[in-house]
Amino acid sequence: MNTNTALFLAIVHCISAHNEDLCTGLRNQLQEHCSLPESGVIIEGRIGKAGPQGPPGKVNYTLVQEKIEEIYQKFEVRMDNRVDQKTETCSSQIKLLEKRFNSLLTGCEKVSKYGALSWNGTGGIFNIYPDNPQQSIEVYCDLTSDGGGWTVFQRRMDGSVDFYRGWNEYVNGFGEKNKEFWLGLETIHQLTKNGNYELRVDIGNWEGERRYAQYGTFSIAGSNDNYRLTVGDYSGTAGDSMTPRSNGQQFTTKDRDNDGSGGNCAVEWSGAWWYEKCHVSNLNGIYLVGGTGATSKNVAWYHWGNNHVYSFKFTEIKFRRKQN
Ligand SMILES: [Ca+2]
């Protein structure tokens, strides 16, 4: 029987017995009992009699501190676990998104300037993922010329890089992609071996004029065929100085003679190119500041350059996947 029930029964009894004193006493008790605040409220002062006195003691603050630390550490571990769990879920989701995004960036035809690692106003350096969304290749993309989408594989602009190099360097590439460079025959082959590609050569002279040669047909064979060039279907303003002596030729360097000459055209003309016997273009030749005093060993483009005796200030060679 709880207190409330006992009091209720007592009141019923006192009313039926007409006992005034008992009723008053019970009423007071009931009032006191019912006016008690709800649980959880702190009451100032003591209610009811004090209990028996306990033995004298002292507070062990070290123990209290230890207990608090133990509780806090448990709490910290629980929080860390939750944060770790969340981080793991988030980073795996980010990786998945990255993979999906990368699988879209198969070449310079698919990138936008907002994804550039560095940007110079008309093009920039990008990571592309031609075969595998986890394996990138760093390339320079020209996103402006004739609608953009070009992968640049050669640039001359100031003579800061030596282009008179051997076979392995022409296979693997050299230079810096936002300055003077050669991307590498093997990379060019790998990036163009599937599908149809076109070629563009941009040339600038020392008088500030730019011209171009564009080719609707372009492919480069693999190493087993010494990166033989197929080029054709010319259009442009610079004249066609690729098809006549370079179409159908293997690549030749100073230490690897694959040309149609009795000697080595790369040695003879101080370059590295798809030489026949030998050339009407020599864009990897010696860089001559000012463009004069040339001897065909220079950066030559026969059909614009007053035969061979003009060395150009600027060249860029690039390819793009054809849309159909
Ligand atoms: Ca030869």
Automatic annotation (TrEMBL):
- Extract the Pfam families matched here: Fibrinogen_C
Specify where the region named Disordered lies, as residue ranges: 238-261
SMART domains assigned:
FBG
InterPro entries reported for this sequence: Fibrinogen-like_C, Fibrinogen_a/b/g_C_1, Fibrinogen_a/b/g_C_dom, Fibrinogen_C-term_domain, Fibrinogen_CS
Q: Where is the Fibrinogen C-terminal domain?
A: 99-323
Top-rank taxon, per record: Eukaryota
Write the signal peptide boundaries: 1-17
Q: Which UniProt keywords apply?
A: Disulfide bond, Signal
Compositionally biased region (Polar residues): 238-252
What is one term from the GO cellular component aspect held by the record?
extracellular space
Q: What is this protein called?
A: Ficolin 1
Tell me the classification of the organism that encodes this protein.
Eukaryota, Metazoa, Chordata, Tunicata, Ascidiacea
